[in-house]
Design brief:
The chain has 11 helices and 8 strands. The protein is of the alpha/beta class.
Length: about 300
C-alpha cells in the first residue's frame, strides 16, 4: 500500500475512532450520521450509507452514542485530523517540493494570524493602527480579516542552503526575493511564506460556502506577493451543497472531499442519478477531488 493510500485509510480510521464520523440518536430516537442534515431525508440516507461504507473498509464497529458531539468540537477535531493528514503526506514529498515546511492547525481566530506571514505582514500594521484609532477601525471594518483553519508555510532559506551545490546567489543581486532569509528585516527569524490556506468544512451550508468564498477573495486581494493555494476540505454528503462551494472559478483552487470515491459508490448504490451527474460534473471540471489528491497538488 502506498504512503498516501495508507494515510488516507488512517485518516478515515481516526475520524471514526474519535467519533467525528459517528451515529447519534436524533429527537425521534433514530440514529443519524454526524455529517447528515437531520431535517433532510436524502442527506440522512446518503450519510448513513457513506459512514457504513467507510467503517466496513477498515473493519470498524460503531459504538453506541448517547448524544452527538457539539458542532464546535466536531469542527475542531476535523481540522486537527485534516492537518495531521496533510502533515503526514505532503511533508514526505521533499523529492518533489524540497524546502523547510510547516503544517499547522490555526486555533486563533483573529486578524493577527495572517499578519505573521510575509505576503500579509502589512495586515499586522493595519490591525495595530485600527486598534489605536476607532475611526480607522470603523472605516476599514473587518473586510481584510481571514483566519484559515490549516496552513502550510515555507520557511525562507539562508544563503548557505541556497548555495549548497553551487554559488547561486550573492550580495549583488536577488536582493528582494523573500525566499532568501537574508532579504528579511530579521534574517535570523524571517517571516514564513504562506504556501496554502486550507478551510475545513465538516459539513456545508449555503452561508458557510459564502463565508469561505469571501475569505478566499480577501486572501487574493490582500496579498503582497504570490497567492497561496486556497483550498477547502469537506465531509459533506450532499452533492448540491458541495456544489455551492466547488462550482465557479476565481476564488478557491479546488474542493477536496474526504472520501470522494466512496461517496460516488454510495450515490450509485442509491441510484441517485441527478446527484451523480452533479458530482461527475464537478470532478470533470476539476472543481472537486479526493483528499488523496491534495498532497500532490500542494507540491505544484
Amino acid at each position: 500500500m502506498s504512503l498516501i493510500s495508507e494515510k488516507r485509510r488512517d485518516f478515515h480510521r481516526q475520524l471514526l475512532v474519535r467519533q467525528v464520523l459517528a451515529f447519534a440518536p436524533a429527537k425521534d430516537s433514530s440514529l443519524v450520521a454526524s455529517i447528515a442534515d437531520t431535517g433532510q431525508k436524502s442527506s440522512k440516507e446518503i450519510a448513513a450509507r457513506l459512514l457504513n461504507k467507510l467503517a466496513d473498509g477498515i473493519g470498524f464497529s460503531f459504538p453506541t452514542m448517547r448524544a452527538k458531539k457539539k458542532g464546535q468540537t466536531l469542527g475542531n477535531e476535523f481540522e486537527e485530523l485534516c492537518a495531521e493528514f496533510v502533515s503526514q503526506t505532503f511533508l514526505n514529498l521533499q523529492i518533489l517540493r524540497p524546502g523547510h515546511w510547516q503544517v499547522l492547525q490555526v486555533k486563533s481566530r483573529s486578524e493577527a494570524v495572517l499578519g505573521g506571514f510575509e505576503q500579509y505582514s502589512h495586515l499586522a500594521e493595519l490591525a495595530r493602527l485600527a486598534a489605536e484609532n476607532a475611526e480607522i477601525k470603523n472605516f476599514m471594518g473587518d473586510g481584510y480579516t481571514v483566519s484559515p483553519d490549516v496552513i502550510v508555510a515555507r520557511i525562507p532559506e539562508p544563503d548557505e542552503a541556497i548555495n549548497t551545490s553551487d554559488l547561486i546567489v550573492d550580495s549583488e543581486f536577488s536582493s528582494h526575493t523573500m525566499l532568501r532569509a537574508a532579504n528579511h528585516p530579521n534574517p535570523t527569524a524571517p517571516l514564513p511564506l504562506l504556501h496554502a490556506s486550507i478551510s475545513c468544512k465538516f459539513t456545508m451550508r449555503s452561508d458557510r460556502a459564502q463565508n469561505t468564498r469571501t475569505e478566499a477573495l480577501n486572501l487574493i486581494r490582500s496579498r503582497k506577493g504570490r497567492t497561496p493555494h486556497i483550498i477547502s476540505i469537506t465531509a459533506e454528503p450532499m452533492p448540491s451543497r458541495i456544489a455551492s462551494l466547488a462550482l465557479g472559478t476565481g476564488d478557491l483552487d479546488c474542493v477536496y472531499h474526504i472520501a470522494l470515491d466512496e461517496l460516488i459508490e454510495t450515490l450509485e448504490e442509491l441510484e441517485r442519478d441527478d446527484a451523480l451527474d452533479s458530482i461527475r460534473s464537478m470532478v470533470e471540471g476539476k472543481r472537486l477531488k479526493d483528499i488523496s489528491d491534495l498532497p500532490l497538488d500542494l507540491a505544484i
